[in-house]
Amino acid sequence: MPSLPSWVYWRGNEMTRLWSIVLFTLGEALLSTALALVVGLPAAFFAARRRFALREVLLSLSGVPMCVPPMFMALGFILCYGTNGMVTHWLSHITRRECTFLYSFAGIVIVQGFYNFPIVMRTVADSWAHLPGGAVDAARLLGASERRIFLTITLFHLKSAILSAASLVFLYCFFSFIIVLLLGSLATTTLEVEIYSAARSMMDYPYAARLAVIETLCALFVVSLYTLCGTLNNQTHGFQRDTPQKSVSGITELACLAVMVLFIAAFLLAPMMSIAANAFVSLTPLRRLFTRGSFYSALVNTVVIACCTAALSTLLGTVCALAARFKYRGAALKVLVMLPLAVSPIVVSFCFMCLLPAANAAVLVAAQTALEWPFAYAQVSASAESISDNIAASAFLLSPSPMFAMRRALVPLCYRGIASAFAFTFAISAGDAAIPLMLAIPRFETLSLYLYRLSGAYRFAESSCCAIVLCLITTGVFALGGRRR
Amino acid sequence: MKSLFLSVVFSMLLSLVPSLPLSARGKSSKKQAAARREVVVYAYDSFTADWGPGPQLAAMFEKQTGIKAVMISVGDTGLLLSRAVQEKKSPKADVLVGISNHLVEKARQLDVLAPYKPQGSEAVPEPLRLDDDWQLTPYDWSFFAFVYDTQSGVPEPKSLEDLTRPEYRKKIAMIDPRTSAVGLGFLAWTLSVYGTGYLDYWRALRDSILTLAPSWDSAYGLFTAGEVPLVISYTTSPPYHVENDHTDRYRALIFPEGHTMHIEGAGLVKGAKHSAEGKAFLDFLITEEAQAVLPLTQWMYPVNEAVKLPPSYSAAPKASKMLTADNEKVNDAIPAVLGVLAGE
Predict the structure, then answer these.
(1) Nearest by CB: A202 against B26, B52, B331
(2) What is the pLDDT of residue B83?
């Protein structure tokens, strides 16, 4: 029997230590995902079903977590809620004790939960806007209460979207690095931190490889669980329509909306505003940034690369989502699609460094697309899964060919998901510094790499200005994508 | 099917558009490279950025020697060595810039550098030389030190021991030695000062540390944002603020226990394609002309003592006592220190 390679075998007490690291990593990822769902689902309801003044602003912010580097998001929270944060000072003044939730496990969960809730909001809102109206009307006619309708029809219809969003948020939190180290307790360790330390500091590649295998298996297990739950009883019924939006009515709805807006303002907008305030203490950093020629070339590179990556990712994601919805209904394809997301970004980066010695912009687009297209798939899939079997059957029956049915009937029904897919993958590409860094393309910078380099050279204010520019570009793309046809 | 096919083709063509100018430049630069001499330099991000020394040094080097220096950023020092190891069988770089004194032994074990004693090496003072066989040529250095915010309202600590006192509770942004050379540098500093008793010091220091930041930039970002009054950095950090922010608010603290140094070096890659050009670059790097670029770009001292420092460097104090670090023990100390910080 052939023997296994030596790097597979664990040394000494590595396994014992590994258990506590795995449990911690899973714990923070699952709790952060739960918080993102708790905040994101009500936000999705209001974004999909209600008209209110800040609705477009809320939807436009969906891409911010993807493009704002985690370090700046952490800095934003610290400026607000750190030991010397603005809100902390105010609360400490009132309560006469030290009030901060940061630098603890709770700090990691709260920051990650609010950082990622827009993914839940956007993904679920797209589905919620296309409820099966016939089933809802029939249930009301037969005397079902709104609560029963919500639990038996609405939640059932949204199951796929919720699980898709939860999978994405879980993976983001599972592979989280900077937020965990900066805002957690001292010497916090996750699997990603251990791999980073093993590969880059100790250059113990066999140990890093063992950890990477464990990490990927853990991530894949949870993602497969979500995917399998999502494919159970996955048939939809009823006529799909664009659910009309109503104005916010009643005390209960107003109160819920007010609480939701307050939380989002406190835990997403306030940190972002703090970054902007920190950057614009004076106009000098902005002037310095805008007089650098390298800034403009980084800006152009970012927009071009992000557009190309988003286009390719959206195309691939759409094809796979439609194939999974109408041809290959099993869970296997869905799990396979999520596989790239289940691999550590640090491991992927090292693989790219080893396998792609000569890099250029096309290689960067290909590398980013290979990692990001599952995001596009998740967005389009949420819309595709909400297309009822009746509609699909009618489209195929009445069309001269399956491709005609796809192009003229079914793809237009997925417009929201496709627009979200483009916006999300644009934002991820624009905010990605890891792959451009690893590929080390000569004389080529993107904004995310540019701001990372600025912050490493004392130029934090300029770096913050760069982060604001990235936010504005991405917010603009989401605003365009969120416009109703 | 036809429209889907066309969509796929369009997307692929679109994705190739950005690469066309680079490809064209790549092809033409190969022809041009055959005609002109060049040296490929791998360095870290802040060295090659347009605010760093890289572009100025490349222009000066080409003017002096006619050799084009192609600066390629590969991330940080850890990535620099990783990339060199990956390319060992067929090196693409000729020179590696940015290997610090803490990684000298690691670089030696990885066997990616060739020894070369540059011309003018007598200008490098003895305490700054990284090794006897000149696998690495030092080009800049500084002392590790705590930088203090004089406007914080917190009393200025006078020694490493002072930092363990209750008034400094949660007042320090420390840097993780697993993920940052600066964090590793501070660990080496405590090893030099306390020897086998270093863990007792870390145990006493634990309550003073607010967070273990993953990198120098995140820790320094917390510091300049006012979250903490103390951060581990270099004695040459305050001159940046004097020169650019026109403030002497931030002060580097000199402790009586002594300070270890952070020395950065450049080395000739073993098996480099342009070995002669690489040697010429190393010769150039320690000349007075090249070294004069470093103070206001690297914010570190040049190794060539003939270089006149800018006026802002009056804000950079010199350590009264210079310590040497035992770099072989530093990596072994990381798990022990993390255990202490985790409360074990």
Answers:
(1) B331
(2) 85
